[in-house]
Amino acid sequence: MSNIKEQTLSAPFTWASTLEILEGVKVDEVGVKDRVSSLATRSIKRESKLQALNYIVSMCDLTTLEGEDTEGKVLQMTAKAVRPDPSDDEVPSAAAVCVYPSLVSTAKEITTGTNVKVAAVSSYFPSGQVPLESKLLDTKFAIDEGADEIDIVINRKSFFEGDYRKVFDEIVSLKEACGDKHLKTILEVGELKTYDNIKKASLLALAAGSDFIKTSTGKIPNGSSREACYLMAKAVYEFKLKTGFSAGIKVAGGIRNSKDAIRYLVIIKEELGEEWLNANYFRFGASSLLDDVLKQIRKLKTNAYQSSYYFPRG
Predict the structure, then answer these.
(1) Is 250 a catalytic residue?
(2) Is 3 among the domain residues?
(3) Residue range 101-127: average pLDDT?
(4) Which of 135, 181, 214, 295 is catalytic?
(5) How many domains does the chain have?
């Protein structure tokens, strides 16, 4: 996996220009469903499937965000991210591991000298229901511990109250606190509910300086969906046209098998192009997905499925 590409907005959006693009959002729901349904029928040839599966491995952010997380659990998961299949050198490393700020330094023990990034959730993940000052302290602590990337959640309370300016200002402040670290902003699409809201939240997060927009915390039943990914891709495309900035997308929540993951790759390729088919611009936040992908890779190479215990636990 290549290192994250460094880029900055040549002309950051003002609030006035952001408000202008939000006011113009109106999504054709029928058109979105038809397009996503059509893309789901696309197939990948056998000779291309191995490449697609390796792409998916290289795009995975292995994640543990539980109250029972221990240093041992994080070390084990991080080792798996670096060498997903120790018996096969052709299988790439995962993109990153994602942990709570207090466990960042533990993950760094394994990732130092590798291409695997350490991401930390902050801003009072998963609810985001604390004052901005607390969110900034949380973020600065994670960075001081060595985090390469920061995953925040938008202020859904303010979003639903129509106070888009507060959502915008918070992301701007958190991006400033990140400095040169990449900021991934979680929209929590399952709570946003409507296509208009998903598109608005995507554009709002991008205009405020997010390097990535992410579907979900993975802490609610309705996490990711291909329709949400499609809407986010359209927002990224429109933002690129306006600014020249190529933002990334991370899908998380409910993606558990390679067949489903490949459908997401098809959406990204068709709507954004092959430029986005790498970990610089597209990620999967789904630890359970990795084992299925590794099984599929082994099946393609040996014509036999491996039991789940064949691969090291993460």
Answers:
(1) yes
(2) no
(3) 96
(4) 214
(5) 1
Residues in the chain: 314
CA dist 178 and 209 (Å) reads 11
Residues whose CB is less than 8 angstroms from the CB of residue 156 and which lie 6 or more positions away in sequence, other chains included? 128, 188, 191, 192
Of 9-23, 86-100, 238-252, give the lowest mean pLDDT range. Answer: 9-23
Residue 5 in domain: no
Residue 193 among the catalytic residues: no
pLDDT of 185 over the 50 cut: yes
Range of the domain at 221: 15-302
In a domain, 107, yes or no: yes
Contact 56, 262 (CB under 8 A): yes
**Nearest-angstrom CA–CA distance, 201 and 193:** 11
Can you spell out the DSSP letters for 6-28? Answer: P---SSPPPHHHHHHHHHT----
The CATH number that applies at residue 225 is 3.20.20.70
Q: Which of 138, 148, 151, 292 is catalytic?
A: 151
Mean local confidence (pLDDT), 250-270: 93
The kind and range of the H/E element at 176 are helix 164-178
Instruction: Say if 310 falls within a structural domain.
Output: no
Quickly state the pLDDT bin for 11 (edges 50, 70, 90): very low
pLDDT at 230 over 70: yes
Give the pLDDT of residue 93: 97
**Which position among 181, 250, 269, 295 bears the catalytic label?**
250
Instruction: Look up residue 26 and give its amino acid.
Output: K
d(CA 280, CA 278): 5
Sign, CA dihedral 214-193-205-247, equals positive
151 is catalytic: yes
Q: What pLDDT is attached to residue 223?
A: 80
